[in-house]
Amino acid sequence: MQIADIKSGMEKIEIEGWVHEFRDLGGLKFVQLRDSTGIIQITVIKDKSEKKVIDIVSGITKESAIKVEGKVQKSKKVGLEIIPSKITIISKSEKGLPIPISRETSDVGQEKRFEWRSLDLRKLRQQAIFKIQSVLVEGISEYLLKEGFTQVFTPCLMGVASESGSEVFPVIYYDKEAFLRQDPQLHRQLTIAGGISKIFEIGPAWRAEQSHTSKHLCEHRVCAVELAFIKDEYDTMKVEERLVVEALSKVKEKCKKELEILGVKIEVPRTPFPVLKFPDICKILKEKGKHLSEGEDLDSEAEQILWEYVQEKYDAEFYFITGFPSAVKPFYVMKIDETPKWARSVDLYFRGLELSSGGQREHRYDKLMQAVKDKGVKDSEIEWFTKIFRYGVAPHGGFAIGIERLTQSLLKIKQIRDCALFPRDPEMLVP
After folding, report:
1. Cβ(386)–Cβ(369) below 8 Å
2. Ranked by mean pLDDT, which of 157-166, 288-297, 306-315 comes out on top?
3. What SS3 class is residue 180?
4. Containing H/E element for 150?
5. CA distance readout (Å), 284 to 9, 213, 278, 309, 430
């Protein structure tokens, strides 16, 4: 039984949890018992409780794991309380916790919290983040499976640094060097080339960036989606916006208590999402006093201006930005044939924050190899990927949406590290 299952009038229950708080008022002793579903009060009355119960409660320590047997009754002050007939110490906690659990305090630094991450995770607020994250992934998976997508698992180890050697982690692989993948992108495309026309993958990716912002991790999880026989990048956008709607609807339905703990209200967005497109974006920014040349990528100032523009014009939180300059995109992104300076690329934004990147891939062998040459990629390093495109690869595209970043932006969490169980950044490698 869990605390959430307790109802008034239960004459005999057994429940386990942790000592959240303890108060001794002489004739009355109160223990707040906590599990992952909530907190309930254990009331020990000196004149009515057995001596064994009183003795155990008198020596109890915060965060000890205990089992309580007793009955449930109504309380004017706390709603429900348990009158114990027996309390058993399952695992006693030492006195003097390294970080507080029963209250949020601003004087405990991030480094200290993550040193004691398992204690930090005992806070119901922290648990609420991961329950919601779990339901987000559940909603994403349910939607994709319902739509006929096959869940796949591509390698995390790469024989070559396929995108940018400066941002990958090298690892020892027997007697040679390998790399942790930055993104499951290329192997997803190879799977599409293998004839599985609608796939998705939920798994880790790594980037060896020296980023110390509140929005970056060295290891993160992505939901990566790819589909074949598309007309253009707008087919991928239809899938992504539906995925977002289904995931948020699932959270709103199943996580009322967790959202209340975090003080967050979720609005399921209207579809279709607004679309901002290059080169029109350059004109929009110019009208707002921001100069952006036609071959230049967006910076944080430009992203903020566009977010304000979307709020004013569309009253929306989710929106797409498409048609980025091809010069800032990888070799596998398809260029627009009529205007090759622009790419069939798509980024999904939420409240001014980029959540995902994707679009249509180049499936034509001659065009792909020209892009490889233009980007300065060595044929010998990428042939393992490009050679299949000589044998009839379908038009395809997709996207990869960051799970931690989606969680952070949706729940308005200041620090993305709080959205990873055991986060990895340039300094943090343990626990």
Report:
1. yes
2. 306-315
3. strand
4. strand 150-151
5. 64, 28, 10, 8, 45
14 lies in which domain range?
3-96
Give bridge partners of residue 277 from the DSSP assignment. 322
Query: Is residue 214 pLDDT above 90, yes or no?
Result: no
pLDDT digits (tens, 9 = 90+) for 374-417: 999 988 889 999 999 999 999 999 999 999 999 999 999 999 99
Torsion angle of the four alpha carbons 195, 198, 203, 206, in this order, in degrees rounded to the nearest 10: 70
CATH number at residue 43: 2.40.50.140
Residue 52: how many other CB atoms lie within 10 Å: 11
Instruction: Count Cβ atoms below 10 Å from residue 209 Cβ, excluding itself.
Output: 16
Same domain (yes/no): 134, 197: yes
Kindly tell me the burial class for residue 376, based on how many C-beta atoms sit within 10 Å of its own C-beta (0-12, 13-18, 19 or more).
exposed
272 with 408, same domain: the answer is: yes
Does residue 166 register a pLDDT over 70? no
Q: Are residues 397 and 334 in the same domain?
A: yes
Residue 424 domain flag: no
- The β-bridge partners of 14 are 69
Longest dimension (CA), the chain: 88
Q: What is the pLDDT of residue 374?
A: 94
Query: Among 44, 43, 56, 34, which residue's Cα sits nearest to residue 103?
Result: 34
Q: How far is CA 219 from CA 82, 129, 201, 351, 405, in A?
A: 44, 18, 16, 23, 12
Q: Could you give the number of structural domains in the chain?
A: 2
Least confident of 109-113, 299-303, 304-308: 109-113
Q: Is residue 186, in this structure, part of any structural domain at all?
A: yes
- CATH code at 338? 3.30.930.10
- Give the chain's mean pLDDT: 93
Q: Same domain for 92 and 184?
A: no
Q: How far apart are CA 431 and CA 416, in angstroms?
A: 17
pLDDT digits (tens, 9 = 90+) for 355-376: 999 999 999 999 999 999 999 9
Beta bridge pairs of residue 34: 18, 39
What is the C-alpha separation between 43 and 32, in angstroms, rounded? 9
Eight-state DSSP code of residue 422 = S
Q: Evaluate whether residue 403 is within a structural domain.
A: yes
What local confidence, expressed as pLDDT, does residue 49 receive?
84
Does the residue 409 lie in any domain? yes
Task: Summarize pLDDT for 266-278 with one digit per residue, the tens.
Answer: 999 999 999 999 9
